[in-house]
UniProtKB/TrEMBL annotation:
Localization annotation: Membrane
First-listed, main subcellular location of the protein, grouped into a coarse class: membrane
Keyword Signal: yes
Keyword Transmembrane helix belongs to the record: yes
Domain L-type lectin-like: 49-274
Organism annotation: Ceratotherium simum simum (Southern white rhinoceros)
Protein name as it appears in the record: VIP36-like protein isoform X2
Residue intervals passing through the bilayer: 312-336
Membrane disposition: Single-pass type I membrane protein
Highest rank taxon of the organism: Eukaryota
């Protein structure tokens, strides 16, 4: 069992910030639980995590397919291999995606993504990258790393190609995040800069060791970390307070290639429920929301589209419009005749 825990590298990767006493407690708890399906303490205080298998994916990738009974659905060029799920091959003009069928109603959660990006392209001759999603809509192909534009929810992008030629201060590949209420478009020409919450450089291509990304959402606080140096340690990338995400959205990942290409592989997706203590004041502040938003960041308001008219409603509108038109014509004729009569009387 100890060998299994050591090889998993779980707590070695957990920031490397646990004290010796907390680490000992975690080891004892894991040894008692054996299978690892129960709670794990991830830090001081009352913070425990539970692996949610209905939202997780790992080898041998059972439950992945295109049928309605599958927990995970493939789209586009995505295909299941023995050691990974390939979203796009190293070929031009491909896009693929992998989406969870089960909506997530967790309040606090952590998603760990084990991925690999590699290909034959040389420096700046590869693309375009992959994205991890927590969104209202699923299985919607589009131009934003293989997903729809003007999405509703959270997108985390591992962008491997710089589209904005003039920029010099940003080194690619680059990880960024975006929260959208459906009103914003992702700006490809500027690599998403106008709408990003933050980001960091992440050299992730053609590495000979594992690369990981973790997205943590706790108490309206979004944290994104990465383990891409082969050191089994999390490194901070993005931290944003005041992020409000509704419950009931879907997790997914997607990728796209254009004139340039890469292999974009997902090895595992593991979602953990985090149980966190809240004060009564925090309970009031952390009530459910219905549209994604970020405190101190103004998102354009969404105007609800008018529902389409039914056949009966359209008929009644046309009918009464015709009646009104006929009525107006009749009134106009009557008034015109009276005016003519009065004009004749003046001449007599």
């Amino acid at each position: 069992m100890a060998a299994t825990l050591e090889s998993s590298g779980w707590w070695q990767r957990w920031r490397g910030r646990l004290s010796a006493r907390d680490g000992s407690r975690m080891l004892l708890l894991l040894l008692l639980l054996g299978s690892g399906q129960g709670p794990r303490q991830v830090g001081a205080g009352q913070t425990f995590e539970y692996l949610k298998r209905e939202h997780s994916l790992s080898k041998p990738y059972q439950g992945v397919g295109t049928s309605s009974s599958s927990l995970w659905n493939l789209m586009g060029s995505a295909m299941v291999m023995t050691q990974y799920i390939r979203l796009t091959p190293d070929m031009q003009s491909k896009q693929g995606a992998l989406w969870n069928r089960v909506p997530c109603f967790l309040r606090d959660w952590e998603l760990q993504v084990h991925f690999k990006i590699h290909g034959q392209g040389k420096k700046n001759l590869h693309g375009d990258g992959l994205a991890i999603w927590y969104t209202k809509d699923r299985m919607q192909p589009g131009p934003v790393f293989g997903n729809m534009d003007k999405f509703v929810g959270l997108g985390v992008f591992v962008d491997t190609y710089p589209n904005e030629e003039k920029q010099q201060e940003r080194v690619f590949p680059y990880i960024s995040a975006m929260v959208n209420n459906g009103s914003l478009s992702y700006d490809h020409e500027r690599d998403g800069r106008p709408t990003e919450l933050g980001g960091c450089t992440a050299i992730v291509r053609n590495l000979h060791y594992d690369t990981f990304l973790v997205i943590r959402y706790v108490k309206r606080h979004l944290t994104i970390m990465m383990d891409i140096d082969g050191k089994h340690e999390w490194r901070d990338c993005i931290e944003v307070p005041g992020v409000r995400l509704p419950r009931g959205y879907y997790f997914g990942t997607s990728s796209i290639t254009g004139d340039l290409s890469d292999n974009h592989d997902v090895i595992s997706l593991k979602l953990f429920e985090l149980t966190v203590e809240r004060t009564p004041e925090e309970e009031k502040l952390h009530r459910d929301v219905f549209l994604p938003s970020v405190d101190n960041m103004k998102l354009p308001e969404m105007t609800a589209p008018l529902p389409p008219l039914s056949g009966l409603a359209l008929f009644l509108i046309v009918f009464f419009s015709l009646v009104f038109s006929v009525f107006a014509i009749v009134i106009g004729i009557i008034l015109y005749n009276k005016w003519q009569e009065q004009s004749r009387k003046r001449f007599y």
